[in-house]
Amino acid sequence: MTTRQQLSLVTLGVRDLGVSRRFYTRGLGWSPLLDVDEVVFYQVGGGVALGLFRLGDLSADVGHPATAGTPFTLARNVDSPAEVDEAMERAAAAGAEILKPAQRAAFGGYHGYFADPDGHRWEVCHNPGWSVAPDGTVSLTAVEPADSAE
Question: How far from chain centre, in Å, is Cα 77?
């Protein structure tokens, strides 16, 4: 039996759901899929949803203490370096901490990093070898880094 490789939902524990709701909805311009008092869900493509859940409620639900700002990165791939700049500017205007300003990347693309109000790290990236189909399917092709030696 083959196991399906699948990710359906990423849930972020947040300290203040109101602050996070405003950041993602008003600040980044995302539309909630479901927005109730204790949790907000956003459809983020490819059949994956992003949930924002109060940190204490998440800890209770899991039955184990949860902490914010876990050591992983969420990422969005966009169609151009200009879209990276635009997304980074919008995040900063919404209160994000810019961790790495948008810049050329060693892999031949262009990217930057920000942290949301709870410290969750996001990368916004244009990678010429990475494409996302309308259904969210990711495709990768080899791209020679811009600064590689021949």
Answer: 9
Q: Which domains does the chain have, with CATH numbers?
A: 9-140 (3.10.180.10)
Q: Which residues lie below 8 Å from residue 79, measured CB to CB, with a gap of 6+? A: 126
Assessment of whether the complete model's pTM goes beyond 0.90: no
Q: For residues 77 and 36, is the Cβ–Cβ distance under 8 A?
A: no
**CA–CA distance, 22 with 28 (Å, rounded to integer):** 9
- Per-residue pLDDT tens over the stretch 72-91: 789 888 889 999 999 999 99
- Is the Cβ–Cβ distance between 99 and 114 less than 8 Å? yes
